[in-house]
Amino acid sequence: MRLATLGFASAALLAVFLPLFAETPSSSRIERRLKKALEDGQQSAGSGLAADLDAALRPGSTLAAIRKAITFDACRSDIYFLASDELEGRDTGSVGHRKAAQWAADRFAEAGLKAVGDDETYFQAWKWGKKPTLNVVAYIEGKTDELVVVGAHLDHVGKGPAGGMSARIPHPLAGSDETYNGADDNASGSTTVVEMACALAKLQAKPQRGILFILFSGEEKGLFGSAYYAAHPIFPLKKTIAMLNYDMVGRNADHECDVLGQDGSPELGDAVRRVNASFGMNLHMPPKSPGIYAQSDQWSFQPKGVPSIFFTSGMHTEYHTALDSADLINVGKLEEVAELGAALALEVANLENRPSWHKIDLGPRLGVGVGPISAKKRKELGVGEDEGAVILTQVTPDFPAARAGLLAGDVIVAIDGKKIPAEGSDEAFREMIYDSEKQVFTVIRGGKRIKVTVDYAAPKKDPKPPKKK
Ligand SMILES: [Zn+2]
Q: What is the pLDDT of residue 221?
């Protein structure tokens, strides 16, 4: 994931994120996570899907074939290689990134995917400034000249302490290891796409449309690899019916993932839901895409009329630090995302009609940063045990929240009379704020519960009249 540039989306993102980052992870917390990752991995090994769903899969079906082709062991081996010190944080234009690109090309060749890059190689070469770099591309032919693009960025931010130009502040525990291995960001998505490609290459029947797999470079520098592709497409963008992107898909809760972009194409959202019926993942699909939608490679395709879906399992404390390492990855989850991804790519490639494209009007429009609220503070304010709550860490001037009179420090417990769920409150809050033109927020302020109506459509304040001469 690209670090947010200055602007409203980044302010909201960092405001959500900073309270987490401010706490220093103790080594025991890291150990606990390692242990959990290990347990998760063991549980998921060889199962991938819940046993009761197995019955729903016909033997010999495509889905069964996909599940067989994508294994826990392969995902684990991929991610440990891509996030190894040997690849030096895969910075754009670096030797480490080139090694990663060559590895992916070898995997594509082994699986028999078609080389559709420069001079029939698996590479699309371009330059970031003066540095030569590569997107990696591989193709599965369809019956028609239309296609689906499946992408992930392979680059990360390199070595610390600065960790390349876009790395964040050095992590307190990063002193002994200053390679930004980028296991979640984005060895996880790269693993997903490589495994999807190799699995789908084994299919007997051609899909209706082709599937182009791309591992972008230059994403962390500002989505440059995908922008290059969008400006120099290998197959016409007019024939490209959809783009599926995977960025940071290996962390946070088991079986859960955010799936963003259905406001850009309801048919793609429907395709995700149809495919997930066989997987039963807990997918969060907000009706309006939040600002983070602009922070990865699908954003390069959006203005070109290619509808896109973005899979991400969200932020964490190790984001853009030297601690984003392979041992924290939930490999079983990665396997599940890759299996679902392969099934989805096929579903979209075989859609009868092209999915529609709509301009994505990015949220959140409310103009706030939110953070979690501590147990102590909850008690003080009288937040019920079954009640969720978020605190506004920031209110951006001249956005709807500020115009309605919401203040930093306000604690929100309900929207339009609906309680914020106690589990995953921040995320639920963000999903709840897109529903209508006006929303009523139940706010705890100064020990009292008040209601504040936010009118999203209210005009901005009139500009000050020009001074008289
Ligand atoms: Zn990133």
A: 87
Residue 171 has pLDDT above 70, yes or no: no
For residue 268, the CA-to-ligand 1 centroid distance in Å is: 25
Report how far residue 149's alpha carbon sits from residue 146's, in angstroms, rounded to the nearest whole number: 10
Q: Is the pLDDT at 19 greater than 80, yes or no?
A: no
Residue 215 CA to ligand 1 center (angstroms) comes to 14
Q: What is the pTM of this model?
A: 0.71
Taking the C-alpha atoms of residue 319 and residue 174, their distance in angstroms, rounded to an integer, is 13
Which range (42-46, 119-123, 277-281, 383-387) has the least confidence?
Answer: 42-46
Peptide bond before 303: cis, by omega within 30 degrees of 0?
Answer: no
Same domain for 181 and 268, yes or no, is: yes
Q: 357 alpha carbon to ligand 1 midpoint, in Å?
A: 27
The per-residue DSSP string of 367-435 comes to -EEEE---HHHHHHHT--TT---EEEEEE-TTSHHHHHT--TT-EEEEETTEEPPSTTHHHHHHHHTTS
Say yes or no: 331 and 443 in one domain: no
Tell me the percentage of the chain whose pLDDT exceeds 90. 55
Strand extents, DSSP E, 117-209: 123-128, 131-140, 147-153
Q: Which of 349, 380, 410 finishes a domain?
A: 349
Ligand 1: centre distance to CA 402 (Å): 30
CA of 56 from ligand 1 middle (Å) equals 37
Q: pLDDT for 61-86, tens place per residue?
A: 888 899 999 999 999 999 999 999 99
